[in-house]
Design a protein that fits this description.
two-stranded antiparallel sheet, 140 residues, 5 helices, single chain, mainly alpha, elongated
Length: 140
């Protein structure tokens, strides 16, 4: 159980995750909107109670999976602000089982790294694979 107030945890969230609680959200994307602040407060309360999140409850499963509510909510907010979306809590780095029908189907049957699937699709389409490397001072 936690004995830290929400106001006491806010500077920690700002320091380690960059989310801000004051200012104009039109000028700084990291400033939380009212509904985002409400989400964070709700998750904080669940986390501070120290209770296991019951993933049988469809709302809790959707919001937190089986993970710690405050951490998951912070992560969701950061993902949202970055324009990222995830479809599950079950993603891992293991190879993906694939299969296909049609032209080139034979190269898809098996387990592959998810990035290999894109390369296989480009191959079947006759598109040369291109890897975009962001400009970085160490990359020439």
């Amino acid at each position: 159980k936690g004995n830290c107030s929400f106001d006491e945890i806010k500077p920690v969230i700002t320091r380690y995750f960059g989310l801000k609680f004051e200012g104009n959200p039109l000028e700084d994307q990291m400033i939380l909107l009212d509904y985002q602040l409400d989400m964070l407060k709700d998750a904080y309360l669940l986390s501070m109670r120290g209770e296991e999140v019951n993933s049988i409850d469809p709302t809790a499963a959707l919001l937190y999976g089986n993970y710690e509510p405050l951490t998951v909510t912070i992560t969701h907010l950061l993902n949202n602000k970055a324009g990222l979306g995830w479809t599950s809590y079950q993603h891992t780095g293991v190879p993906v089982s694939t299969s296909a029908m049609g032209v080139g189907a034979d190269i898809f049957n098996g387990y592959y790294d998810n990035t290999d699937v894109a390369l296989k699709i480009m191959s079947v389409m006759g598109i040369p694979p291109k890897i975009h490397i962001a400009h970085h001072p160490d990359v020439k």
